[in-house]
Amino acid sequence: MTTVKCLVWDLDNTLWRGTLLEDGEVVLPDEIRQVITTLDERGILQAVASKNDHDHAWGQLEQLGLAQYFVHPQIGWGPKSGSVRAIADQLNFALTTLAFIDDQPAERAEVGHHLPEVRRYRAEEALELTGRPEFSPVVTADSRRRREMYQAGSLREAARQDFTGADEEFLRTLALVMTIRRADEADLARVEELTLRTSQMNATGVHYGDAELRALLADPGHEVLVVTLSDRFGDHGAVGILLLERLPGVWHLKLLATSCRVVSFGAGSVILRWLTDRAAAAGVHLAADFRRTERNRMMEVAYRFGGFTGDACPCAAAVTGPDRDGIELLHIEPVRQEPPTTMRLDAPDLAVPRAGAGTVVVAEVSHG
Question: How many angstroms separate the Cα of 208 from the Cα of each of 81, 211, 254, 307?
Answer without folding.
Answer: 34, 8, 11, 27
